[in-house]
């Protein structure tokens, strides 16, 4: 009997140590467990449709009727997807003195929230296909399926997703105008960076809300091309290396390392440069770098009359869109 009681006491003692260890183990592993957030599924068919709908207006060159109509379409879409829409109308002066009737269109979610992310794309298209192999096309406008519509298409699909399930942070979708009115190649051999990104320069100087700030920004430029590859662009690495890391890490986790190559490349004069320099918001550019291209590292149809829907790939749109959604829904 004594022995039995002894045995019981010992086993109780051992059990209590065990359970103590278990609870220790438990609390330890709880601290290392990743917080899983629900990231919505980016629908590349929808993004493709939003690109098609812009392209259907024809080229969206400032001071044209197609431009006015497409601006209305974009603002309407953002409203349909529940954003608070702000329009910034401005007369911007191009390098050649042309006054551009310009419209930045901003769609905001949770506008009262201080913690924010800014997502950028340009919605205008270039007045001249001055990189075309055929000289007779050098004064024809660019249709801009990739160069213009793709970034907007991806961001409209992101807006649609945000409307169905809100992320923690406030989001601003900032669609800038007059990006692509830089000097005509055959006219001005000198290269002036301030001739590009007129709409983003204006927004950076006069943000849509006073004292606007965001944790970081991401610019999408030409994100729909077939076989596109994206590298860590120079200015992005200079101004916002942590944002680059975050985005490329998310892409890798999703298995998109074929699209997002974890290497640095040269700098591109693009809207993010002015957002960084003037508004001081750390902003990266997701812009293609096609290593084996013959006519342009942005893709051989860049600034040609062939920048049409035939070059748009749903796989590329999905890789970019899902990566951005993953980044924004994981911010706390
Ligand atoms: C230049 O190559 C000057 N700019 C690239 C920015 C750009 C033009 N994005 C679209 N079109
Ligand atoms: Zn362009």
How would a textbook summarize the main sheet?
A: 6 strands, mixed
Arithmetic mean pLDDT: 92
C-alpha Rg (nearest Å):
25 Å
Q: Assembly state here?
A: single chain
Strand content: 15-25%
Report the structural category.
alpha/beta
Distance between the termini: 61 Å
CATH superfamily: Zn peptidases
How many E strands? 8
Please list the strands of the largest sheet in the order they lie side by side.
1-2-4-3-5-8
CATH topology: Aminopeptidase
Shape type:
globular
Q: How many domains would you count in the coordinates?
A: 1
Low-confidence stretches: 4-30
The amount of helix comes to 25-40%
Counted by DSSP, the helix tally is 9
The CATH architecture is 3-Layer(aba) Sandwich
Helix-strand topology string: HHHEEEHEHEEHHEHEH
Descriptive report:
The chain has 332 residues and is of the alpha/beta class. It has one domain: Aminopeptidase (3-Layer(aba) Sandwich), CATH 3.40.630.10. The protein is 39% helix and 16% strand. It has 9 helices and 8 strands. The protein has a 6-stranded mixed beta sheet with strand order 1-2-4-3-5-8, sandwiched between helices. Helix 4 links the parallel strand 3 and strand 4. The protein is globular, with a radius of gyration of 25 Å. The chain starts with a helix and ends with a helix. About 8% of the residues have low confidence. The structure holds N-[2-(1H-imidazol-4-yl)ethyl]acetamide and zinc ion (ZN). Zinc ion (ZN) binds next to loops. Zinc ion binds next to loops.
